[in-house]
Amino acid sequence: MINSPQKDYYIDSYGINLVNYAIKNKNRNKNIDAVIITVILTMLTACFIISKPIFANSDVDIIKQSDTGKEIYLEKNFKENIKNKYAGSYINFPTTGVAHIKKIKYINSKPIKINIVELNTNANPNLKIKPQIASYKLNAKTTVRKIAQKENSLVAINGSFFKPQTGVPLGALMINKEVMTGPIYNRVGIAIFEENDRTYFKMLNVDFDISAITPNFKVKVDNINQPRMLSTHLLMYNSLWGKISPPPPQNGYNMLIRNNKPEKISANPIEISNGDTVLQGSKEIISKLGKENYINIDIKLQDEIKNAKHIIGAGPYLVKNSQIYVDYKEQKLQAISGKNPRSAVGFKNDGTFIIVTIDGREKQSVGMTLFELAKFMKSIGCEYAMNFDGGSSSAMYIKGAIVNDAVNKEGIAVSNALVINEIDNNLKISSLN
After folding, report:
1. E strands along 160-214, which residues?
2. What is the C-alpha separation between 285 and 282, in angstroms, rounded?
3. Domain ranges, ordered by start, for the chain
């Protein structure tokens, strides 16, 4: 663009001279005039082009300032909302977009100690949430602190139910798109999505469609890496389960599949190497599958969660579509309905993710029932919420310390946890003090 001084210059230097030239030289060859005018116009255009990058650079600077301002606004707004929402409670901000709140609530004049972590992935896109098992195999247990420290996590909470004798998670578990265990009793789970630098969540009753497919037929597989529920079930185990498969049901068989081919059929447990699959079921179906020369195990997720990166199941529901919804009977969880220490997670569709622990079984904190927990999760804004494993398992870790009063101080050794990491994507996140 040409500024006013530049315009005056070109008018003074070319415009007036050109007029004078035209008056004094009326009879000059018109072709020569056209050439002169073309040259002048070319010079004017060149000046305009040369001046334009100055303004283009200015536009880029404006965009950068706008993005930085947005980050500052989101973080400032996040902090202000937290301070207003939990006025009178202890509040700490471990990092950008993460708040830790401690509060005491009274129900029927009885005290309840509550720890809450609220985070917002819009205020800090570097926050990543995922389940994590205790070791590289499913049949292992350790404390929430050790899981968090192994993962270099900022925040962690105990996760799904598990078999106490072995540590194997009970219910759906998928980490980094790898299905580790299948759902049981149609229980609820939370699916975590990461798409285009955006994190979002869905909560629903999880179901996997697992099949053993041969060139001649297709058979439904009832579950993966889970204890047997019915003698008629066809179950699948892989190396995540452990080194040895479980024994088959009475009058049933185990079949080893290696490189998609049946390798061995046995009425006893079978050793499992990396990449192996063991199918366990009735003599009839295993014998039929064993005659095939190719078997492919196909695992499909529900359409609503087929693009999820992580899934962790537990239950029951606490809040569904912003309404209290406690389906512990349907999910066969009646045994945990009394006042207990609790762990729960919830979210809002604006990117807010909330984790909660409730201390219990002590005079200073009596714990909550599932309905009391559901009411509380709704009161702090959860549009969806679900119960995690509670009781002695309940433990919340933040930056090196267990912050709740767990039953066993550190909490018992558990099968898995939900961890929150702050990754470095070379993105500059604004932080306000």
Report:
1. 173-175, 178-181, 188-195, 198-205, 208-213
2. 6
3. 4-77, 86-207+302-422, 209-301
**Alpha-carbon torsion 87, 77, 321, 339, what sign?**
negative
Cα torsion 299, 303, 306, 311: sign: negative
Packed helices 16-24 and 30-85: angle between N→C axes, nearest 10 degrees: 160
User: How far, CA to CA in Å, does 55 sit from each of 3, 8, 44, 46, 62?
Assistant: 12, 21, 18, 15, 11
Low-confidence ranges of the chain (pLDDT < 50): 1-28, 48-67, 427-433
Report CA 231 to chain centroid distance, whole Å: 35
CA 228 to CA 66: how far, in whole Å? Answer: 57
CB 350 within 8 A of CB 292: no
The three-class DSSP label of residue 73 is helix
Nearest Cα residue to 413 out of 136, 145, 115, 148: 145
- Residue 182 near residue 299, CB atoms below 8 Å: no
Query: Strand 342-347 vs strand 384-388: parallel, antiparallel, or unpaired?
Result: antiparallel
Q: Which of 131, 128, 118, 185 is nearest to 160 (CA)?
A: 131
63-101: pLDDT as tens digits: 233 345 556 667 789 999 999 999 999 999 999 999 999
225/218 Cα distance (integer angstroms): 20
Which residue, among 153, 174, 201, has the nearest Cα to 400 in the 3D structure?
153
Burial 135-161 (b: 16+ CB within 10 A, else e): eeebbbbbbbbbbbeeeebbbbbbbbb
Residue identified by tokens 């892989």 is 238
pLDDT tens-place string over residues 277-295? 999 999 999 999 999 999 9
Distance CA 48, CA 2 (A): 6
